């Protein structure tokens, strides 16, 4: 017997719910016995009252039990590692980390999502590669990870259906940015997908859910506890999302930058994050190496071309054309010029992300189609010195009108000043 009104009321009044009650609510919602309006009220009660650590674990566990789980490790006969980012602007990290880790002999099987709003989705980026199939069956996915070393696919419908429903509901009821709900949403998917070791990348700053390092640390600690309670090894990086990551923001343009990085020619901040994540994944893997040796092997795989080879094998195995000349190119390109001499004091991640969305690179609603060719290249980043008339950014657009609008948005996103801003590294802290 489901009593959602009573549970909503008790949570509204600040009471703790039992594990059975949370399970009843989640399974009732997934079977459509609990309607959206009651679940929305429950999410809002959680938004204001929060969940205890025990409740957060019980919610995560109930969400996992709403669908299938995969034991990738036993299907492959290897320890499987995974990474997850909370989402940001220009975040193409998995695209570079996967082939580098695979080239080092560690299987990398990842299920990713699509972007909404100013944050891009890994699947949308991959779909700019002609022929790339994001929807492999589970058997094909496991075979490809075993035979080719890596695969990145869309999440199968059977994995954590409760999150699919709940995330859509939270998105339209102003209840996304609640710590326990975010932690349960992310970790339910990671735990159900079966990785034994997980590197989490919690983004901090303007373009992230977590605006402050304190909030990011709390989210990281919550996810770490959920993972460890479920018997997994977890490391959590807190990384900068005050400005876009790397130079490229869009889809095909991010795929190009990810490949450049796999070849050792990527932007400094993005390369640092990729190599750091690879080192930690290798240290968590069954290779029996520490982070220092992991970093050395990741750098060697980039330098000797084996990471690029792994990229080609992966893209081809998934039906895509590995030749970067096959990626779509925007017909209109326009440079955004510095209006004065100075330092780049700020480059707002949300403003750049929104400019890319307005060009057509992202979605405003779930139904929107994406233009894979368009986007932005941030040629100057925070701390760079620029001279008047020097290009700050390049707009990649479908037509002159959208290019002109993006140019104005990007000019507003760059704040120039006479003095240099304080240094802010890409890797801000580690929670482990
Ligand atoms: N990413 C997720 O998968 N879920 C959230 O709630 C927030 C970010």
Secondary-structure map:
Layout: H1 4-12, H2 19-30, H3 36-49, H4 53-64, H5 72-76, E1 81-85, H6 93-103, E2 108-112, H7 122-126, H8 138-148, E3 150-154, H9 161-171, H10 179-192, E4 197-204, H11 213-229, E5 233-240, E6 248-250, H12 252-262, H13 268-284, H14 291-303, H15 306-317, E7 332-337, E8 342-347, H16 349-359, E9 375-378, E10 385-386, E11 391-397, H17 400-413, E12 414-417, E13 427-431
Helix pairs in contact: 1-3, 2-4, 4-10, 4-11, 6-12, 6-13, 6-15, 10-11, 13-14, 16-17
The chain binds uracil.
Structural write-up:
There is one protein chain. The chain is an alpha/beta fold and 432 residues long. The protein has 17 helices and 13 strands. It has helices spanning 4-12, 19-30, 36-49, 53-64, 72-76, 93-103, 122-126, 138-148, 161-171, 179-192, 213-229, 252-262, 268-284, 291-303, 306-317, 349-359, 400-413, and strands at residues 81-85, 108-112, 150-154, 197-204, 233-240, 248-250, 332-337, 342-347, 375-378, 385-386, 391-397, 414-417, 427-431. It has a 4-stranded mixed sheet, sandwiched between helices. A 4-stranded antiparallel sheet has the order 6-9-11-7. Strands 10-8-12 form a 3-stranded antiparallel sheet. α2 packs parallel to α4 and α4 (53-64) crosses α10. The mean pLDDT is 95. Bound molecules: uracil. Uracil binds next to α10.
What can be said about this structure in brief?
This protein has 432 residues and is α/β, with parallel strands linked by helices. 46% of the residues lie in helices and 16% in strands.
């Amino acid at each position: 017997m489901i009593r959602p009104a009573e549970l909503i009321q008790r949570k509204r009044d600040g009471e703790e719910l039992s594990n059975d009650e949370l399970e009843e609510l989640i399974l009732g919602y997934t079977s459509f016995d609990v309607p959206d309006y009651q679940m929305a009220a429950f999410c809002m009660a959680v938004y204001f009252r929060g969940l205890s650590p025990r409740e957060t674990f019980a919610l995560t566990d109930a969400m996992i039990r709403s669908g299938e789980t995969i034991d990738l490790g036993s299907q492959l006969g290897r320890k499987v590692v995974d990474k997850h980012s909370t989402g940001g602007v220009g975040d193409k990290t998995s695209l570079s980390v996967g082939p580098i880790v695979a080239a080092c002999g560690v299987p990398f099987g990842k299920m990713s999502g699509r972007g909404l709003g100013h944050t891009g989705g890994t699947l949308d980026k991959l779909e700019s590669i002609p022929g790339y199939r994001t929807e492999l069956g589970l058997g094909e996915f496991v075979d490809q990870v075993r035979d080719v070393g890596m695969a990145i696919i869309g999440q199968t419908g059977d994995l954590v259906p409760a999150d699919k429903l709940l995330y859509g509901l939270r998105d339209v009821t102003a209840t996304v940015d609640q710590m326990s709900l975010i932690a349960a949403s992310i970790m339910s998917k990671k735990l159900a997908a079966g990785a034994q070791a997980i590197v989490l990348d919690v983004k901090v700053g303007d373009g992230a859910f977590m605006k402050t390092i304190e909030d990011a640390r709390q989210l990281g600690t919550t996810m770490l506890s959920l993972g460890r309670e479920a018997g997994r090894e977890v490391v959590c990086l807190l990384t900068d999302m005050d400005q876009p990551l790397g130079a490229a923001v869009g889809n095909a343009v991010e795929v190009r930058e990810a490949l450049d990085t796999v070849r050792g020619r990527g932007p400094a901040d993005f390369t640092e994050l990729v190599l750091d994540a690879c080192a930690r994944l290798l240290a968590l893997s069954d290779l029996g190496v520490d982070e220092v040796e992991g970093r050395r092997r990741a750098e060697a795989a980039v330098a000797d071309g084996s990471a690029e080879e792994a990229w080609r094998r992966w893209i081809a195995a998934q039906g895509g054309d590995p030749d970067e000349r096959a990626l779509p190119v925007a017909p209109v390109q326009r440079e955004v010029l510095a209006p004065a001499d100075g330092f780049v004091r700020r480059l707002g991640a949300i403003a750049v992300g929104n400019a890319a969305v307005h060009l057509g690179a992202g979605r405003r609603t779930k139904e929107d189609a994406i233009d894979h060719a368009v986007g932005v290249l941030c040629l100057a980043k925070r701390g760079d010195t620029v001279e008047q008339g020097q290009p700050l950014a390049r707009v990649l657009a479908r037509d002159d009108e959208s290019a002109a609008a993006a140019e104005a948005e990007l000019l507003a996103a760059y704040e120039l000043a006479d003095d240099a801003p304080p240094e802010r590294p890409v890797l801000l802290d580690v929670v482990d």
